[in-house]
Amino acid sequence: MVLENKSISIGDRNLTLDLGELLFPSLVLAFSIYYFYNTNTLPRQSMLYANPILFITVAFAIFVTLVHGVKIEREKAEVTKNDQLSTSAVEATKQEEEQSDSPYFTKRTASALVIMSFAYFLLLPMAGFMPVTAAFISGTLYLFGERNWIYLALYSAGFTILVWSVFIVWLKIPLPTVISL
Amino acid sequence: MIETGFHPVVVESLLSIGDQTSLFQPLLINQSMGSGIEILLNPIVLLAIFIGCALGIVFGAIPGFSATMTIILLTPVTIPFAPEVALILLVSAYGGAVYGGSIPAILINTPGAPGSVVTCWDGYKLTEKGKAVYALAVSAFASGFAGIFAAVVLLIAAPIMADFALQFGGPEMFLLAIFALTIIPAAKDASLSKGLLAGFFGLLIATIGNDPQLAQPRATFGITLLKSGVNYIVVLIGLFVFTEMIRLAMRGSVVSENNDDMGEAGNGNGQVIDGIKAVIRRPVDFIRATVIGTFIGSLPGAGADIANFVSYNEAQRWSNKEKSSEYGTGIVEGVIAADASNNATQGGALIPTLTLGIPGSGSTAALLGALAIHGIQPGPGIFQRSGPIIYAMVFSLFLGNMLILIYGLSGSRYFGKAAYVPIRYIIPAVTVLAVVGTFAVRNGVLDIPIMLLSGLLGLVFIKYDYPLVSPVLGIIVGTIAETGFVQGWIINQRNAMAFLTNSAVSVGLFALILLSLLITLYKNYSHMFRDLDTYIKKSSKGKN
User: Which of A31, A169, A173 is best to mutate for the B interface (most B CBs within 10 A)?
Assistant: First the structure.
């Protein structure tokens, strides 16, 4: 997961934005803005602690943005290019360490796992725990390279029944099926 | 009368420990200890220790499965159990999982958990030399006894700490919460600003829900479930379980499924005895590693992953030149340094967790959740409130670590086979268990997307070097911090100086906060100081 850096020339200086480093501070700032507008009409006593925490969090987010997310350099074309090349090499090495040689374990399959997990959550109240869980397990097994249909079916059904037996029959702990807001 | 299977005289003696006429009475400090031992005599509790330890070793031996994940995934299963059975099972599983990570580290050069990375360096080299069983015996013996040592420290220090913490008022609890957040970047060698941003974000998330003063909803997105706030267990599951599943989905298994070659094992019994003797003959190495592990474990947010590196570095530093150069080539001192410190973090991490309600590691953060589910409130005065169960938990560490010795010395090669379970079977199963476990926290389906989103956030954290434990710790200590701040602020009539100097303890805590900030700043910018020093020296030479 590498986000490209963006460079902007301002006079003889290069302003480089590391979009990856800006991800989390931006998220924090966006949440803080929502938090502020949601709470600015609340009584002072309700926000006695929360307001200072909010402002300190925003201050840290801005600080991290400036220290890690933004670089201002004097424009030196060759040095800048070498820096970019060495940064790319470091990023490439990190990516290689993260990625496997198998075609079934890639960023694409990881993204599919995330999407399937969200779909699993959305479908649970519609179709019930057992069918959705069995479908999720068989789908992810297929995604990660299991092609033996017997193993796929046995594992999906078996694990689902095991979870249901342990949680519902033995422990009497409810399983997720109903959304109540 | 419970059938314990022990001789009646033994049972009678142990059960009468709290009694004034008991033989053991002079040895004991209070009746809670006696009640704790009585709890341990329950065969169900003993079975929980056996099963918990074994489960922990199996899960810990699977690469990608940490002790934190083990506790998180077992917690929902233990909800209907009696509190003592549930908590003792989880504590035993914790110890087992921390040790279990060393088995694949030694056998196949793959750490089962972050706390076992360093074990690979010398442990696997020993396997390559045909001494796998020897290395496993060293690991089991060092781990088991280090865990027992740390349990002794916990037994002595925890009641003292819990009683001392009773003096903590509002300002002290607030400053303690802030100290816990500031020490994480120092312990994890992370960027100070990133560590504090993550921690304060956690504090802000903790304010979501109805405020404790006037019950006004803060940032609830109009969702009823969020009126009771964001549950830290949900965030913990997302950051430590779902994030790891996504990473496994990207990189696959680090273990070849077709490779069943664990190297030459050699003669079993002879190597086991040699391994035990090797640890006994190196008491200084063992004690140093154990003390380091216990101390680092007691620091909020720092666990086995830090302890094993620090211990290994220190062991190398303390050696003579010749021995120092042998580290990494397959020497027993390397395995002792890694594994003794690793397991000692268990007892150390439980000290702040039980006595202050501040987790000493990610694993104890998960244990905090289990304590809350079973109605145990950690923090100052815990031994007064729940003494028998807490003492039972502490004493179970002794039994659990002895079991680690037994399991490890007799069967670690077989536990190591768990490392070969194909990842494609683990990912969907663990994801389903994460979803089920998230729902089980408070029967809230909307906790599930919070868990999934936390998992995605965890990826960003790992990629851009934010400490994973910081936001969780922020959410955990958020309530303590808010209550302490509001109380202290009002009592001290909104005077900041009076707040900070409320007592000697608050002054001490404030000094500790400044110290940990300075240490982290120095670590982060030491290269600038060195460059400045070099520049000054060069300038001086030039002038001369």
Answer: A173
